[in-house]
Design brief:
Radius of gyration of chain C: 25 Å
Structural class of chain C: alpha/beta
Radius of gyration of chain A: 25 Å
Helix content of chain C: 25-40%
Number of strands of chain A: 12
Largest interface: B-D, 198 and 205 residues
Largest sheet of chain A: 7 strands, mixed
Shape of chain A: globular
Number of helices of chain A: 14
Distance between the termini of chain C: 54 Å
Largest sheet of chain C: 7 strands, mixed
Structural class of chain A: alpha/beta
Strand order of the largest sheet of chain A: 1-7-6-5-4-2-3
Strand content of chain A: 5-15%
Shape of chain C: globular
Bound molecules: pyridoxal-5'-phosphate
Oligomer: heterotetramer
Number of strands of chain C: 15
Number of helices of chain C: 12
Strand content of chain C: 5-15%
Distance between the termini of chain A: 27 Å
Amino acid sequence: MIAEKKEVNVESPLIFERSVPGRRGVRPPAVLEADLSALLGAENLRPEPPKLPEVDELTLVRHYTGLSRRQLGIDVAFYPLGSCTMKYNPKVHEAAVALFADLHPYQAPETAQGALQLMYELQRDLSEITGMDATTLQPAAGAHGELTGILMIRAYHDSRGEHAGRRLVLVPDSAHGSNPATASMAGYALKEIPSGPDGEVDLEALKRELGPHVAAIMLTNPNTLGLFERRIREIAEAAHAVGAQMYYDGANLNAIMGVARPGDMGFDVVHLNLHKTFTVPHGGGGPGSGPVGVKKHLEPFLPSPQVVQRGETYALDYNRPQSIGRVKSFYGNFGALVRAYAYIRMLGQEGIQKSAALAVLNANYLKELLKEQGYRVPFDRICMHEFVAQPPEGFKTLDIAKGLLEMGFHPPTVYFPLIVKEALMVEPTETETKETLETFAAAMGEILQKGKEWLEGAPYTTPVRRLDELQANRKPKLRWNL
Amino acid sequence: MIAEKKEVNVESPLIFERSVPGRRGVRPPAVLEADLSALLGAENLRPEPPKLPEVDELTLVRHYTGLSRRQLGIDVAFYPLGSCTMKYNPKVHEAAVALFADLHPYQAPETAQGALQLMYELQRDLSEITGMDATTLQPAAGAHGELTGILMIRAYHDSRGEHAGRRLVLVPDSAHGSNPATASMAGYALKEIPSGPDGEVDLEALKRELGPHVAAIMLTNPNTLGLFERRIREIAEAAHAVGAQMYYDGANLNAIMGVARPGDMGFDVVHLNLHKTFTVPHGGGGPGSGPVGVKKHLEPFLPSPQVVQRGETYALDYNRPQSIGRVKSFYGNFGALVRAYAYIRMLGQEGIQKSAALAVLNANYLKELLKEQGYRVPFDRICMHEFVAQPPEGFKTLDIAKGLLEMGFHPPTVYFPLIVKEALMVEPTETETKETLETFAAAMGEILQKGKEWLEGAPYTTPVRRLDELQANRKPKLRWNL
Amino acid sequence: MDYTPHTPQDLEAMLAKVGAKDLRDLFHDLPQDLIFPELDLPEPLTEAEMMRSLRELAAKNASAATSFLGGGLRAHYVPAAVVPLAARAEFISAYTPYQPEVSQGLLQAIFEYQTMISELTGLPVSNASLYDGSTALAEGVLLALRETGRNKVLVSQGVHPEYREVLKTYLDAIGAELEEIGLRDGKASSVQVSADVGVVVGANPNFLGAIENLAPLADAAHAAGALFVAVVDALSLAVLKTPGSYGADIAVGEGQPLGNAMAFGGPQFGFMAVRENLVRQLPGRLVAETSDVDGKRGYILTLQAREQYIRRGKAKSNVTTNAQLTALMGAVYLAALGPQGLEEVATRSVVNAHELAKRLTAIPGVRQVTPEPYFCEFVLELPKNPVQVRSELAGRGIHAAVPVPAEYGENLALFAATEVHTKKDLAGLEAALLEVLA
Amino acid sequence: MDYTPHTPQDLEAMLAKVGAKDLRDLFHDLPQDLIFPELDLPEPLTEAEMMRSLRELAAKNASAATSFLGGGLRAHYVPAAVVPLAARAEFISAYTPYQPEVSQGLLQAIFEYQTMISELTGLPVSNASLYDGSTALAEGVLLALRETGRNKVLVSQGVHPEYREVLKTYLDAIGAELEEIGLRDGKASSVQVSADVGVVVGANPNFLGAIENLAPLADAAHAAGALFVAVVDALSLAVLKTPGSYGADIAVGEGQPLGNAMAFGGPQFGFMAVRENLVRQLPGRLVAETSDVDGKRGYILTLQAREQYIRRGKAKSNVTTNAQLTALMGAVYLAALGPQGLEEVATRSVVNAHELAKRLTAIPGVRQVTPEPYFCEFVLELPKNPVQVRSELAGRGIHAAVPVPAEYGENLALFAATEVHTKKDLAGLEAALLEVLA
Ligand SMILES: Cc1ncc(COP(=O)(O)O)c(C=O)c1O
Ligand SMILES: Cc1ncc(COP(=O)(O)O)c(C=O)c1O
């Protein structure tokens, strides 16, 4: 903060505001003689160049270094953002990825056997961890995996001539927004199933909705309240009884990674968020990776290509007549796959199960500490990797979040799930120390002590304070203009 | 700053204060069965392990990331630290160095031809740039290069049976402290030569001291006032006339890099600071590199080994009977050599000369701007890469420096050279923009406006404010204790 | 080795506090017969062991850093400053900037990115990024169908075959109709756009590398009340007309040429820019400038009502995590090179490609299929199976000749040249191909 | 390509302001016949071109990452977190922390480093770093001579030959006398320390890898009123007695095993720790804890009166720039591994070395010269010229057998094993050496 604060008198200048006509930064190799109008056709050339920043390399470095110092991440502070599994991203993964940076997806497969072997083994390991029979690595994120999974379910029903009759997808009212959004993108009608008083899916209500018109049920388990759906087997049986498929949203897999396998609970499809459960950095909002695992009966519908082993060599199998097709160009976010592969190699079964168990322990420990600080926990029982709390009567969750910013912490997820008023969804993850959880809980208590007025004014010393959202929404200024 | 500010209630905890008994971070490969007392002898084992920090990897990452956010460097702010040439360190150099990380100095030379070729070409290029006949890359920093150079001069006199008679080294009173310190380490008596009214060496006073008893004259040119010693040739002639050697302290070479060669001015020995002139990062105080170039008559005395070319291959030549011996194990700070090599390769003659000229232009431009802000410039003429200024009457240089900290800038070098009271030694370097120089000058003016009281209290919002030096000196606490 | 910090003492104290007798006990809500199964996974490794085994895997790959492969990704040089800056710990370890007060670094960087994409495409509004070029196309088409309320799509065969496959997957999902516009002489033939068509898609340059004049296609679309989507090469926009200038309502593309490694196909980023009036239909994140309670300028996520976490089933898309870090690399790249640097990269790529084509078409039996003018990729007809040719070239240490799908013809191979190539490289490929085809 | 930001307009405006007509004019104080000479340097390159040519150079080297080479530096594993943390932009682009208010990050890190070195050596005071192990020894000896006011040095032949060469250079400079203590059966023989001796130097483990009991040497030194300097292996201090515990007044050594790359010999860092009473004789930077005007804890450079920029000709040393960044890597490494991790690295290195010695000495004609006990390096007598052997092993892709100077005997080669080696690696060297010696 030391620098940009002043260097730029209070505000942080845009890179465009640092730009000076004619100033050069990195220079590409010398341009050979060229007459572009001759080569490309004068009529195809743009009349004037794009107004990109013109800065020298040092200014470039100061600009982005300065911006990073106005940014908070896991490496700087505790970041218990519920449902997002903000666990530590090992530095070694960046070194690992660098080993594979210069591979082109279309180079001769015999010159990329290492990359293909890595993908093949990862397909296998992820299937093993989820209890599935086959896995595609193609989807670029969780929501993308959801779409892929639902489309495979759809293709499955279609292959049995049942698609026309099955137009409905059921999701609990506690579901993450991407679940219903995915169902719509997949062309399905939606029905929300209410949660029961115990925070779990209301089994009776669910059964009432079930029938031959239902294509699938989408569940996260543990659900977004951080509670394990104890009746999961009945749910699966009921669904299968009417021919519906069970979809598992793996965003919460960190709670049971290796401890309990969705496949063993009766799920037919699972998507994973490698950028959550398997430590791919979140990168400020991606890139991520959303592999999808399926049971045998759905395998024919996996996107094309799959990586297969043929004797000693690894190959891309494009011969998949029943495939739903492609969901992304090339083979998925390979860079993310390398990180997940490195993670699984290092942890093994022991480390994977231990990590899940300690994620659960950390969440329960923090839950107890927050209760001591006066926070309410609507569904108070042993939770999984996360839990949902509420501030004491009269306090606003938004203010709690802003107060935490002033204390140097990233707040939990707020106002989600929707079924809990003033929800604070807290996911500490297994990589946080007991002391960090205690310091955080103390801060959560301290801000209550500071009182409503202080909270409503918070934060005070962050790079900016509360921002005007309405102004931004009414007539949004979405780019810089001279 | 956001995080560690609170995470640690106001102060930044020591890594030892984050330590928890039994906590593990990075784990080395499994230890095979081992009975150390049997292998090493029980009597040789330490009774208890060193009290090193016990932290997990995330805590490690947060600790050092947090510390870095309490630190200012070139990448964050303008850093016109006179005599230190704080120019931009190209990011590409870090990528370049990584290519050579895993080489062992004792591996078979035929397996390190690339490294040896790089060193050979760098010896040649540095000789070319300084106008010398041969260069050693062994010294680890500038002061180390000084010692190496002076010892070669001594060996030279010795080889002519003149050592006994030449016990004196002359340095101007404006010299950097490492010059006299080096002369002492080399076993020489010292004589300081006063500077004349024009800030240059008083030629008459010098001549009075010159004689067959003088071993060498150590000069920086431009001198530490940023002024070029115009009578350099007379000085050299006078010195050589009595058999004394001319030593060039290259810390200020950035002013004339490639524009004028010390060798052409009559210097016999030159040391370079690759971490100044040739963009090796300063790293918070090293590692640096201090190659030394010499004229033919001194070549036999270069440290051993030198890199030589034999036909198509490169080799280390240890057969140097008249060598002063070694000044460092192995071959010098190779990592720094790679960076300097990369820099010279990219700039070529054109870029090197242009960089020097623009370093000079930036310094003169800033000098004019500071004069407009009321600062005094004792020796006001076209300066080289840096200049020495003084605050307006009544202002203290220390306060100016502290005021600049509050404005987000790193201050110039203060109270050096010693011959100027309240000296502010300002070296902007060639990689700074016109706008940055103007913003800095404006800030220099603004702090004067804020007045003495404000200045004496500054800085206000830095991670810590003015520190108690006396306390630190009286009974220094130099390590953490439980 | 795992990354949990818990000491035995920690475990004991924490278990006591939560009232569990052991870790297994924390899972008592789960079907007890299922938990802690034996997993068939390799033995755990330390960091050093893992890195060594990965190095061994990596050694089974050949670098394509100076390859002549194209078709969506190319070997461009990524300046050394890009990754260290974009991957600063604070950026890489953050998530979606829901808390703007502590996310100004990222939010401002995205705002700047949006501006750069807007400048490149000549369209006023860019989102914060999408997964990749292919999904950006699919999202762009869905946007157009939402806006027009129609259900039919016309797409040029000039669009990357894999992009069209992805588009088909997305359109099948909602039961929309996909019809293709064939190529004539390597360019999209003119078409009749019927009134039920909601969107027309063209590519520039197209998959064969040819530069097309898409204005007629755009006009035809507009005349029928449909929107026009242009799939463009990010680098080409340094010198070629902007999609905005020839009537595109939506421009999409792959960001890899802008400072991203090829990484065996991902991750890179997809970009999307649209006309002002489509902003509320836009999928994905969007950052706006605003001010804080003290009147200080700041940046914030905006129009969130478009997104799944607010609108759920009615959201414009299900996209959540996108490609922020790789998009940031794109922004750093553009800022590092500036308009002139980018133009030089484009120009050198074009010049190299044209010299390469000249050299290769001089080889007996080799015929250029891509019509003039073309950018930095082109397709050749070879007298030999391209899969075979690619392998034999690889055997000589040169990566080139991407086999082109049969829909475009037999024995076709795609070549690309970029700024990384020297005359020596071009001559090297020429010589190698001569041998291979001899 | 250079890194100057000046546009033509900047140039014009700035030249006008300073009253120069062109850049050449800025140099009118210089001998005009000398300025702007033609330099015989290669043509300038762009970043991409330079990196490519460096890659070509690098390809002419063989990695020694799993080598068995020793003798001052060894192939240890550097955890991936070390460089990204130590080389954070703020650390790598800062200089000596003269301005503590904006240098707390570095100052605190140095204070922590001093503590770690103090813990390893069992001596209360550590400086902030010196160039390397060899110069740390020279500075340590000079310190001792200053303190004792004497002029003679006894140094064990067990000290690294290159360190002794460096020491000789430094001592010749001030006309001090250097006498060697020969080895008997691979260990320093007992000596008479005369009253004119100011300092005695021993090594543990010594150059042959042998662990010595230096207490007698230290006692002999003290009995004669001299100081004792121990040259120690940083890693060995994880398990071996501290120099402080056996009477060393000064401990020095090379920091490379602590998280630094071998980098063909540098840069790494030298460490120096001393007894309390020697603190004001210490060369180099020193950081102390103190508090600011608000009573907040902070760190600052201290006892600067020892240094050249204050004391000039009377300074304790001319050292200015030292090895802060590489020392920081050492600190990060020690914090990353902790006491247990460091002990495991040491133990595995020791175990591997002993297994390797067992395997290699089983080869006909090979004899172990290093006496028991030894740490993780040892010397073997080979039936063949070691230079030859090293080359033939290298031809088989294995780096081992550092030729040992003749002063220790004929046909001697030094071997090292570390935690990076697997049984397979050990067997591989055994097999290769068998072939080479066959
Ligand atoms: C429960 C849940 N499901 C799905 C998603 C979507 O995953 P992604 O953001 O990777 O698209 C998320 C995360 O945003 C989530 O929390
Ligand atoms: C003029 C001058 N000479 C010599 C030195 C010593 O160089 P180094 O710090 O590399 O030892 C310096 C820098 O500190 C200097 O400014």
